[in-house]
Specification:
Helix content: 40-55%
Mean pLDDT: 94
Number of helices: 2
Low-confidence stretches: none
Number of domains: 1
Strand order of the largest sheet: 1-2-4-3
Strand content: 25-35%
Shape: globular
Largest sheet: 4 strands, antiparallel
CATH topology: Gyrase A, domain 2
Distance between the termini: 17 Å
Structural class: alpha+beta
């Protein structure tokens, strides 16, 4: 589940990985999706995690942002 945060307004999620090599594959899929959807979240990662923050323009999450986050979740479940 993506968490909604205030100040600044955003949704965010942390994805855990057992192997660093899976992070690279996951990040590659995210890169393609960003270009396709023209939506660029803040991304941070470490040895066993990737964290994404999607900043929102208003209180309601748009369909574009919802679809983007669902696609990211699908990528994670595929690995």
């Amino acid at each position: 589940m993506w968490n909604k945060r205030e100040s600044p307004l955003r949704i965010e999620k942390r994805f855990e990985f057992e192997e660093y090599s899976k992070i690279s594959k996951f990040m590659g899929k995210i890169e393609k999706l960003c270009k396709e959807k023209d939506l660029y979240p803040n991304i941070s990662f470490g040895k066993n995690f990737v964290s994404l923050s999607i900043f929102l323009n208003n209180q309601n999450t748009s369909d574009k942002e919802k679809d983007f986050s669902k696609d990211i979740d699908k990528f994670y479940l595929e690995d």
